[in-house]
Amino acid sequence: MTSYNFGDIVLVGFPHTDLQVVSKRPAIVLYDAGDQDILVARITAQEYVTEADYKIVNWKACGLIAESYIRLGKQATLEKKYIIKRLGTLDSHEIKNVKIVLQKIFLP
What we know:
Blueprint: E1 8-15, E2 22-32, E3 37-44, E4 53-55, E5 69-79, E6 83-89, H1 92-106
Antiparallel strand pairs: 1-2, 1-6, 2-3, 3-5, 4-5
């Protein structure tokens, strides 16, 4: 079974909140416990500037095709079988910044 690390960018079938529609989109891996599931947050090209969003600075180096934002408040647990492919990985500086945003969300 493939394992993923915090900060990996993957292309997945991501469910909408109504669970009726699934869209192919990039997501960031937040947690892989080593079983068949991973915790991800969606990535979008639409600009968001809430306290739970992070603008990816080096989006090209991550394998993304447009300037993108991580919606850290929009998380889902998905089976790994829904991962289409790994696109890239955030660099260490951006991983640190994403962790800061997560701390602000969950440990205010």
